[in-house]
Amino acid sequence: MKRVFQHPPAPTAGRRYWRSTDELADTPEFREWLEREFPFSAAQLNGDEWSRRSFLKLMGASVALAGFGVSSCRRPELYLVPFTKTVEWTIPGKFLYYSTAMPRRNGAIPLLVTTVDGRPIKLDGNPLHPMSNGASDVFVQAAINELYNPLRAKRIAENGQTKSVADFEKYLNDLRGKIGDGGGLAFLVEETHSPTRERIRGELEKMFPRMRWCVYDPLRSEAQNFATQISFGDDLRLVPRIERADVILALDSDFLDCAEGDIASSRAFTSRRRVSAPKDSMNRLYVVENRYTLTGAMADHRMRLPASQIPLIAHAIAMKVATATKDAGLGSVLATLQVPAGAAQFDEHWVDEAVNDLVSRSGAGLVLAGSQQPVVVQLLVYGINSALKNVGRTVLLRELHRNQNDNSILQLAGEMVAGRIKQLFILGANPVFNAPRALAFDPSGKTWIDWPELQKKVPDIIRLGYYEDETSALSRWNLPASHFLESWSDALSSEGHYLAIQPMILPLFGGFSELDLLTAVMGKPKVDGPELVIQWQYRGWNCAQPLERTNPAADPGISRDRAGARLFDRRRTLRKQLVAAGNARSDHEADLG
Amino acid sequence: MEGAVAVPEVIEGEELAPTEKPLTRVPLVLNRRSYGWLTERIAGAVENRAPRWWWVAFAVTAAIAGFGLFCLGYQISTGVGTWGLNHPVGWAWDITNFVFWIGIGHAGTLISAILYLLRQKWRTSINRSAEAMTLFAVICAAIFPGIHVGRVWMAWYLAPLPNNYGIWPNFRSPLMWDVFAVSTYFTVSVLFWYTGLVPDLGTLRDRATSKIKKFLYGIFALGWRGSNRHWRHYEMAYLLLAGISTPLVLSVHSVVSFDFATSILPTWHTTIFPPYFVAGAIFGGFAMVLTLMLPARALFKLHDIITLQHIDKMAKIILLTGSIVSYAYAMEFFIAWYSGNQYERFAFWNRVLGPYWWYWWVGMLFCNALSPQLFWFRWCRRNVYVVYFVCMCVNAGMWFERFIIIVGGLHRDFLPSSWGLFIPTWVDIWTFIGTHGIFLSLFLLFIRFLPMIAMSEVKTALPESDVHAQHPAGAMEKEHA
Amino acid sequence: MANFFPRWSNWLPLKLAICSFVIVCGLTAGTWYYVTPKYTKVGYEPIQPVPFPHDVHVTQLGMDCRYCHSFVEVGAHSNVPNTQTCMSCHQQVQKDNPKLEPVRTSWKTGEPVQWVWIHRLPDYVFYNHSAHVNRGISCASCHGQINHMSVVADAKPMSMKWCLECHRNPENFLRPEDQITNLDWKPDDVNPAEFVGKYGKPAGVTEDWSKKTHLTQREIGQTLKERWNIQTSENCQACHR
User: Do A271 and A293 meet the contact criterion of CB atoms below 8 Å apart?
Assistant: First the structure.
């Protein structure tokens, strides 16, 4: 059957034309191919028993069999892949629970973290801690997505160029020589209420006595702190006891929203809205606000009022309360204030009823002002609470160590515009994006300038950021920050409970924690374990009792789910202890107030 | 037929004039048409070349059917998300269309079974088309429960087959009975229709001119020879089938109504639903029979076979069933008020004044309750234009009624935060229009290839077939002569 | 034109009916047999990276199932042993056996051994080992006589119907809790007097079972079912969560 292709013979006379580019090239492969009818392997079929027909027949059959019966119907093979070495406490398919805390501007939230095979997958409030009782909020729930966010900062960069850890260490060692006594050194940090960070800051201040430490948060209220200081003294803060109040008046205070208030406030408020026995009473909530908030939605009586009018209504309420109670303190506060001009634009009757209610429940009322309200409103509210004998009953004074050396971002801006800041460490905050405008007056250009301009005046800016964001773009060095689920730290709750923060997982992208960076600035070696946090315990801290007396470093979690019954027993006893401790603390606080 | 009676083409006023003599009736076939004339006229519609209007109509309906089938394919391959179903309206056009089509099928069975048992001879002119229409409507109806489950290849779960899962369908669910009821109904209807066709298929076979036609009609005629024995067996079988399918007329739509009546939704859990639905189904079915027959009568010049008397009788049935349905509507409102149940009351106020208010005012009140009331007047019953107008109203109104019952019960959830309206997608709309295409295409094919009037049965209504009847004077004299 | 159809066509409908009946029955029977897990799953015996002989380890050496499958009583998932478990013996025993090379490689490199998954349920089925082995269901009920298998093969169909066989009648499968990992256990092994002494009798049984020469599986199962208050769920969401 083989048919040899008859290539037309090349003409013998005349000019020879090539008939294909291959013929022009005239390679040996082409010559061989020209002689063959079939490709190389097919030629092996040449022979009596292998006709083209039988070849196609067999190939067709085998293709059909391969496709139909044999290979495509195989069960897909899957594998069981165990660990190579046993991992402590891990049972395949079971969860492990660890306790930690989430640092927040208003005070940390105690958490219970569910982990699977060493990966945190779910955050919930710690059911054993009175600051949460198992509750959490949207920020807690979203934090787990923040941990695995693929847009996190993942590299160490100097002016946008990726660098190694060694490069940064070398830079930092050189920089330390230039810092000297810290005359040009400044730190811009966020509010985390971390005792250990405060301790390391103290060490830094010993090393660099002239350094500045600026706590900045776009929503942080200086007014409230200032008013507390001048009303009650330093190192104190006011803690509202909402569950004890029968009548609550909130002046532009969204204390039920998780961004501004905390979980404990919501819980305390709703505990007085649950009526299960005839003797139970409910609280009453008056809200004056300029927008519809969660707190406004819960109000029994709500008044719409522009935020600018809140000082007016606060003054009016204070006048009425002063008249009713004849309180000297409130009277003296009011005496220093000028009576605001202009007619009242609110419902007087509403205010009268609210004041009557508050006065009739003297000692069981509570007036709250939003943290964004100016100092005068805060002072008036303190005066009203004091006149109504609420302080010590529904408003408790709690000792809070407040470092007197803290700078505001305005002070820092002043230093920066004067060119006195040479080295700036920005830990976490994103001031380029959210700092107020016109922070400092530039005498050379005779203009008010914004933070981005200020940042350009500082030669060495080291930014520890969770994302490569606007501030990173204007910083010399950018370091990836580790998540709070990736690092050791600690924090205080909004009522001052000490909470340990322990890592659930190693840093996913080799990030640094704030404590890592601060120790590195001092030239100390990096600490991988909980040692820095443990040192705090040895030094002691008198503000509040630590919640769990166990060593937070040694106890890796409050529960292992290996034996459910044991867990429940332990929870029950712990809860009992906590309740007892809580009662004791409350009594102590009442005395203090 | 040697003895064919020579009669004038048209006997003036025969069908309109009341007969002078008491106890005589207006003949069911006018103008003293003979056996031969009937065969020629009816079989001729099948044997002659297709008229141009048929091709145009078939092209249009087949195109619509094709697009409807494309929508079905799109919905099956993509998922039920192509429909507008969403919380809280999880059943909308799909089940509305199902109930609409299955209701239309009822007229066929009623005409072929119940009227047969009641010896209503006038049924013979319309029963074949009505039965065919029943089958096509049930086919259109069966599409919707089949595809609304989403994974149609799992539809065999509806059948109680032993399987590897060791589980069975839930026999307590009316949705399950629906499957049995509709499939039984379809099977019996096919048998009934086909049994009736056999003698006519024999006629077509014998008259066929080409071998292919002879072969095909011959296959389906099952060797019909018209012998005495054949006729005896045939009539016994027909009677038995009529007996079997009579309860089906009542049961199928009762079971369909259980889909709703056994639930706990206001406007759904209503005990009057079974009779209300059955009456509504016959109501809608007769309207659809007239919708199809009036044009066919005009186009194929069947005025002598489908006379104004037939139309008058069907209009009376529409009036009766329409009034039953109206009574049911009123009774629903009464019960809602009388029960004192605030949810029930709200649901019915919502039906009248809620977002679907015009569905009720136009669809239920005007189309279903008021328009058939015209049939109290003889003039209206005998005017084909009025009859056609009322039938179109009823066709639309019955669809709206089902929509109001189904979506009206769902769009106002017990939880006001879940309230929402149903917004159909283009797939919803075109699937429904597509089923009309399928229905009409099948019907056009039917009138083209099968005798649309039961020749053998109509002939029994001729005076010649009744040896004891008083024959028209002319015919008698001629025959005796 | 009367005799259009030939004479033989009179019998054609009957022949066609018989033929189609036979074909439909054949197809149904074929599907019934070949397209079920009973046929497609039972006997699945893939080649494992290490030919671990269960018969040697369990029957000859007397090792308990739970030595390697250590969390079967605790977890929903019954773990396969990690390399460390293998090496705890095979550092001393058979330490140069070439068949164990993948295990030694794994121990050196830290790369786990990839065992081929045999007893695999669909993803939408939730099965909890601990709930079963702690309440009288033996390993053998689902995995067969694995103690006599030199190569592990799938012994049961593991179809939903098969699961329901036990969930509908658990008394046909229950055994005393100390015999769970004894894969050769038979109802005849039970001493009736001891058994009744330990577990009692089901309510309503007047006969003295402790005098019997042996107890049937049903008797044992009914006793245990009542004793342990076993209420097997037939609810969909028991397994399809």
Answer: no
Query: Is C36's Cβ below 8 Å from some Cβ in B?
Result: yes
- The helix/strand/coil state of A247 is strand
Closest residue of chain A to C113, computed from CA coordinates: A81
Residue of B nearest to C160 (CA): B165
Confirm whether A566 is domain-assigned: yes
Touch between B and C (at least 3 CB pairs under 8 Å): yes
Tell me the HSE value of A322 on the side-chain side, using a 13 A CA sphere.
18
Max mean pLDDT range (A326-335, A399-408, A535-544)? A326-335
The count of structural domains within chain B is 1
* Domain-located, residue B259: yes
SS3 of A413, please?
Answer: helix
Chains B+A touching (3+ CB pairs under 8 Å)? no
Whether A86 and chain C come into contact, CB under 8 Å, resolves to yes
CA distance B444 to C21: 34
Number of domains in chain A: 4
> In terms of domains, do A129 and A176 share one?
no
Query: Is B202 in the C-facing interface, judged by CB distances under 8 Å?
Result: no
What pLDDT does residue A55 have? 78
| Residue A506 covered by a domain | yes
User: Which residues in C lie closer than 8 A to residue A93 (C-beta atoms)?
Assistant: 75-77
Q: Which of A75, A83, A93 sits opposite C76 (nearest CB)?
A: A93
Q: Give the Cα separation of B330 and B323 in Å (integer).
A: 10
ipTM: 0.86
Considering only the beta carbons, identify the residue of C44, C76, C112 that sits closest to A81.
C112
Contact B218 C5 (CB under 8 A): yes
Per-residue pLDDT in tens (0 to 9) along chain C, 241 residues = 456 788 888 888 899 999 999 999 999 999 888 888 888 889 899 999 999 999 999 999 999 999 999 999 998 989 999 999 999 999 999 989 999 999 999 999 999 999 999 998 989 999 999 999 999 999 999 999 999 999 999 999 999 999 999 999 999 999 999 999 999 999 999 999 999 999 999 988 888 898 899 999 999 999 999 999 999 999 999 999 8
Point out the domain boundary residue: A359, A377, A395. Answer: A395
Q: Which residue has the higher pLDDT, A480 or B157?
A: A480
Distance CA B268, CA B257 (A): 9
What percentage of chain A exceeds 70 in pLDDT?
83
CA distances from C102 to A77, B272, C86, C106, C113 (A): 19, 75, 11, 6, 7
Question: Do both A181 and A136 map to the same domain?
Answer: no
Q: What is the CATH number of the domain that holds B250?
A: 1.20.1630.10
- Pseudo-torsion of CA B183, B187, B188, B194, nearest 10°? 150
Alpha-carbon gap, residue B189 to B205, rounded angstroms: 23
Q: List CB contacts (< 8 A) between B215 and chain C.
A: 4
Which of residues A539, A566, A582 is at a domain's end? A539
* Residue showing tokens 């109670």: A325
> Mean pLDDT, chain B, as a whole number?
88
pLDDT band at A584 (very low <50, low <70, confident <90, very high): very low
CA of C170 to nearest chain B CA: how many angstroms apart?
A: 15
Interchain contact, C164 vs B223, CB within 8 Å: no
Query: Does residue A42 form part of some domain?
Result: yes
Range of the domain at A571: 96-149+555-592
Domain of B59, in residue numbers: 30-465
Question: What are the residues whose beta carbons fall under 8 Å from the beta carbon of C7, sequence distance 6 or more?
Answer: none
pLDDT band for position A71 (cuts 50, 70, 90): low
List chains touching C (3+ CB pairs under 8 A).
A, B
Chain A: residue whose CA lies nearest to C76: A93
What are the extents of the domains in chain C?
12-40, 54-80+115-239
Distances (CA, A) of A294 to A220, A255, A256, A549: 20, 9, 6, 37
In a domain, B263, yes or no: yes
Q: Are residues A424 and A384 in the same domain?
A: no
Whether residue A344 is contained in a domain is answered as: yes
